[in-house]
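Progress report, Aim 2. The chain analyzed during this reporting quarter is listed below.
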Amino acid sequence: MSGIWRNRWWLGVAILLALSARGMAIVQDRPGFSGIWSSSDHHQELRIEQDALRFSVMKTVGNQRQKLMYQLDGSESRNETHTLNGEKWTQLSRAKWVGAAVVVTTTTTRESTGRSWESMKIYFLSPDGNLTEATLDYPLTSNQAMVLRTVLHTKKSPR
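Predicted structure tokens for the chain:
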């Protein structure tokens, strides 16, 4: 290899290493999600509280509120919610950091039928500081298809 190509090769390796290190630093950061967030269509609000061990989300849609609390160490968290008609759903979840995102996997059981299904919710910040809430789950009517819903939220206040 001639001198000029050897220097360009090392320069390329140095640039790749620098970019990889920069990407790893970004991925390893654990952003703060705490605050009040409003969905882009203003139909829902998230009130998130977070510390090193816990992540809680109070979701308000219209007059209905739902508070979910998770342990960020991957241990199981139990939440009970109620539908508009009062039916109880039990949610067993595990939350953990994956890079700069909080990933929550949940098994939900309907009290009336005993039927269970799994879902995954991912919370992450976009480069402009907005919160993305992505949910992957089954619709209640079918086990054949998955549904992906993504909601973008802007921050209303820090707490």
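Residues 1-30 form one domain. The chain has two domains: 1-30, 31-157. These observations will guide the mutagenesis work planned for the next reporting period.
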